[in-house]
Amino acid sequence: MAEKNRESRISNVGGNVSGLKASQKKALERTYHRRVDPKKVISPELASHLAWISREVGRQVGVLVNRRGQIEQTFVGDPKRIYLPDVGRQRVGLGHYRGLRHIHTVLDDSGLHREDLADLTKLRLDMVCSLVVTEGGEPDRFTYAYPMPDAPDGRGFYQEMAQSVHELQLDFEELIRALEEELARRERTRKADGGRELVVLVGVYPDRASSERSLSELKELSATADVQVVDSMVQIRRQVDAKYVVGRGKLEEVVLHCLDVGAELVIFDHNLSPAQARTIAAFSDLKVIDRTQLILDIFARHAKSRDGKLQVELAQLKYNLPRLTDLDAGLSRLTGGIGGQGPGETKLEINRRRARDRITRLSREIDTLSKRRELRRAQRQRTMVPTISIVGYTNAGKSTLLNSLTNSHVEVENKLFATLDPTSRRLRFPKEREAIITDTVGFIRDLPPDLMKAFRATLEELETADLLLHVIDVSDPDRDEKAQAVNNTLSDLQLDGIPHIIVFNKSDRVEPFEARALALKAHGVAISAASGDGLKDLVNLIAHRLWQIEILAEDDAWASETVARSHKNISSPCQ
Ligand SMILES: Nc1nc2c(ncn2[C@@H]2O[C@H](COP(=O)(O)OP(=O)(O)OP(=O)(O)O)[C@@H](O)[C@H]2O)c(=O)[nH]1
Ligand SMILES: [Mg+2]
Fold it and tell me: N or C end: fewer C-beta atoms under 10 angstroms in the chain?
């Protein structure tokens, strides 16, 4: 069978074969008959053959050799360059290299090229080698490099030169065994270390300050998604590279670095276009996801209600569908694992079709649930109870505020996107007045509006709100940018016409006058949702806005009773 396969490869010489004589092509085809001892990197016979034919055709000639010593591919380059044929986009298993080495001739005195070394790491080849050919067509110096993640110079490979192939003392089998053992050992150490996926964050920013701000949020998002950030790589440039986001050279550096630190996942601090996502995935052997996919992954982990889960899945499907590539891992991302590798056996078309079918079914189911919610809301509106929605950047303290206003126990966490499903509670005011108050999903900058729309349950609550409480974490150095991001999202969603109160929360974490001064300026209110400080002012302001009634701010008893008498007798509208 193996013989037959090899037969069928004859005449299959790739690359730049144009203009070659029939006899030269035949000679190139004969390369497939060569066989290298599996313990050797190259045999003197193969070296002589390659050198001779390369000089004969005046071009570089390359071969891919597998671990059994068979020639898998033969290809021809230009006099000064050679392009590696497609080695298949199948991801190499953990703890393994690709099982192929690339050997090519050079007709001048150069050794390994930069491209060779990039191929070595990005395609996880076993080895790359160059063979200098003399004027007379004889093999001369032989340079080789193999992966070495721990290489002291941080380059990720080890390079060596032999004056001739006869001088090569290397036991190839033994070398690969040791290298893979080391890879596997690293893998085991990582697992023992909690088994969290190791990631490298990558971003392009116009300046240092914005890189720090943006990366710190991406780190928090990564922590929420339970991956371990080992490093971040930043490129400062005015514009994002249209093709690779970071420049090509930087991307090579990223790939190399990932290999160095044992990371398999790269998270881009941008929203990649489908074309960029595909190009970058094709460029390296790493799993690549973007900021939106990371956020979606967090959403998938945190959604609790049936409605929430369906909506996240729908958003993931819609986002990932145009990003599916031929041999892509895409589908498993749809099931919520962080950029997880997809089931290799599934054909792309089936993936796409299944994804589309699922999108249709999910949309239908979500519609049904939405109608039910609408009914409930209509009932509420009939009773003329005004509704208040708490909005704000993620982690600002929205759920804490709902809890302390209504003595509830909505989950509060120092994590981004702790809340996904809206929760409504009744809030009683003096003089038999009451309102419904709803806690909603947090906003984040640069979230595609389509994704925001995925949270229909939340949005529907917002659309019918009579008043929005915009909660801002006053202790956050980026509070202004974040508040602006919330305003932008509100206006994207055409919700900026709803009256709102600005609530500066976490006042206990700043100087007392600071929050108050800000509140005064913004006609808002400073509170500490955690300690209850300032809540009476807030209740007062709400009552004033909703009914134009005054509750004496000095009257502590009244205000605290208002807060204490609140009930939690309205279930979440999407349960
Ligand atoms: N010091 C202090 N911490 C607060 C205050 N309010 C909330 N926090 C903390 O801030 C973190 C986030 O609070 P959450 O109420 O979960 O924030 P959220 O806006 O609902 O966040 P998401 O639902 O994730 O968008 C938690 O660790 C809270 O304990 C406050 O007034 N003071
Ligand atoms: Mg919350």
Answer: N
